């Protein structure tokens, strides 16, 4: 399955010549060696206005990026996990204010880092339990080991949790380990990008009685026809997977990263709700169209429209933005003027970031430089796929927004 243009761009308010600038601009990244290849899809009012590929999915073999190329989407898994959780919420299985220790007892009696070192941290009791909404909004006080910005990050790394978990650890064991580590801050008082969505995935497992991979397959991927979204690749699908690259620190040229990239060829023990999926442009296009249509696509409804609207409002305490509440470190977003909903960054004010967008637009990205956004006001969705670690290397996402919004002509 692929994503082909379904409508002349000018019929849905795009200037075709201006859309062509997308390919010209990002083509230069490939031509000068900074990227191996990429894929872009832009839609409006449910119609594909622009769909293009350029460059190579594997530069060393010369294999081109094709319409059905597969991509490691990393943290673009998070919105899928958030949708899964809210599907259970719609069934009345929990409330957003419920303490997660009701289902995950390892998160009872939590402690919060106060001072000290990795070797001798000093902690205090948590005054507020982690609640479901804290997981969905990254306000739980959890963190990522790869951040390398705090003592708590160091404690995660010391426990074996860096960009990937220790070998052989499953999701239940990982969550048990997270529950033993101190929180970075008191729940609900700050925003910190974290393993919260992995913990949310474990909550989905316990509440639903299914493994996360089974829930995704039965309740989301199967109904939406997302036939190319899986946790690993094998057989013929392995040949369609794009190679993972990182910039050479001296030349800036994309250099393949097989040590990390090869993990996608093996069935994982831990199904990471925060970053484990491999998908195609066509599949993630269907996921974004479901969101744009208020939780329904082709007669299949995953969420009610009011739930989607609720998820895509700013849920940060006091309506503050990430620039005020973020603890710093890596995140798949700019911070100023950006709120956070239940699984998505949400634009409250596009002016502080100096990047064009609409109030109410929601989005996220993955660490290998993939990205998506949904703009309900303009009825626009956009997808960007490439495989370059980390996503902060180049301003690909802001540049794509710049080019897409400049092409809107109605």
What is the count of helical runs?
13
Q: What is the name of the CATH superfamily of the largest domain? A: DD-peptidase/beta-lactamase superfamily
Number of domains: 2
Number of strands: 16
Which consecutive residue ranges, at least 5 long each, have pLDDT under 50? none
H-E string: HEEEEHEEHHHHHHEEHEHEEHHEEEEEH
Measured by DSSP, the beta-strand proportion falls in: 15-25%
How is the CATH topology of the largest domain named? Beta-lactamase
Overall body shape: globular
Characteristic key phrases:
Beta-lactam/transpept-like, 2 domains, 8-stranded antiparallel β-sheet, 410 residues, two-stranded antiparallel sheet, Beta-lactamase, 18% strand, EC 3.1.1.103
Task: Tell me what you see in this structure.
With 410 residues, this protein is an alpha+beta fold. It folds into two domains: 9-76 and 211-407, Beta-lactamase; 83-208, DD-peptidase/beta-lactamase superfamily (Beta-lactamase), CATH 3.40.710.10. Helices cover 30% and strands 18% of the residues. It is built from 13 helices and 16 strands. The protein has helices spanning 16-31, 77-90, 132-137, 151-158, 171-180, 196-208, 212-224, 236-240, 258-261, 281-292, 305-311, 322-325, 396-407; strands at 37-44, 47-58, 63-64, 70-74, 111-116, 121-125, 245-247, 254-256, 277-280, 296-297, 300-301, 338-340, 345-347, 362-365, 371-375, 380-385. An eight-stranded antiparallel β-sheet has the order 3-2-1-16-15-14-13-12, with helices on both faces. Strands 4-9 form a two-stranded antiparallel sheet. Helix 1 packs antiparallel against helix 13. The protein is globular. The protein starts with 15 loop residues before the first helix and ends with a helix.
């Amino acid at each position: 399955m692929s994503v082909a243009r379904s409508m002349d761009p000018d019929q849905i308010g795009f200037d075709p010549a201006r859309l062509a600038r997308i390919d010209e601009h990002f083509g230069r990244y490939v031509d000068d060696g900074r990227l191996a290849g990429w894929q872009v899809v832009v839609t409006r009012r449910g119609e594909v206005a622009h769909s293009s590929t350029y460059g190579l999915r594997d530069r060393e073999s010369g294999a081109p990026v094709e319409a059905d190329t597969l991509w490691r989407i990393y943290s673009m898994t998070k919105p899928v996990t958030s949708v899964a959780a809210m599907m259970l919420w719609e069934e009345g299985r929990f409330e957003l204010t419920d303490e997660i220790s009701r289902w995950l007892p390892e998160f009872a009696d939590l402690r919060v880092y106060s001072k000290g070192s990795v070797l001798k941290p000093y902690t205090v009791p948590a005054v507020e339990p982690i609640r479901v909404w804290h997981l969905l909004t990254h306000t739980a006080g959890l963190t990522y080991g790869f951040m390398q910005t705090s003592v708590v990050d160091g404690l995660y790394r010391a426990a074996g949790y860096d960009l990937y978990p220790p070998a052989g650890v499953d999701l239940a064991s990982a969550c048990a380990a997270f529950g033993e580590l101190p929180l970075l801050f008191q729940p609900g008082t700050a925003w910190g990008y974290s393993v919260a969505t992995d913990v949310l995935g474990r909550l989905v497992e316990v509440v639903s009685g299914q493994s996360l991979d089974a829930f995704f397959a039965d309740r989301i991927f199967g109904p939406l026809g997302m036939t190319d979204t899986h946790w690993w690749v094998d057989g013929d699908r392995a040949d369609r997977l794009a190679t993972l690259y990182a910039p050479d620190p001296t030349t800036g040229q994309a250099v393949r990263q097989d040590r990390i990239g090869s993990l996608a060829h093996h069935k994982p023990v831990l199904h990471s709700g925060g970053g484990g999926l491999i998908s195609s442009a066509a599949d993630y296009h269907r996921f974004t169209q479901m969101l744009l249509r208020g939780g329904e696509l082709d007669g299949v409804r995953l969420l009610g429209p009011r739930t989607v609207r609720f998820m895509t409002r700013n849920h940060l305490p006091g309506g503050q933005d990430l620039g005020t509440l973020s603890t710093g470190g890596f995140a798949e977003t700019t911070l100023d003027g950006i709120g956070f909903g239940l699984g998505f960054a949400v634009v409250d004010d596009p002016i502080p970031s100096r990047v064009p967008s609409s109030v109410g637009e929601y989005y996220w990205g993955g660490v290998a430089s993939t990205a998506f956004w949904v703009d309900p006001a303009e009825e626009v969705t956009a997808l960007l796929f490439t495989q370059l670690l980390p996503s902060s290397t180049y301003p690909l996402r802001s540049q794509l927004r710049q080019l897409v919004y400049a092409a809107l002509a109605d």
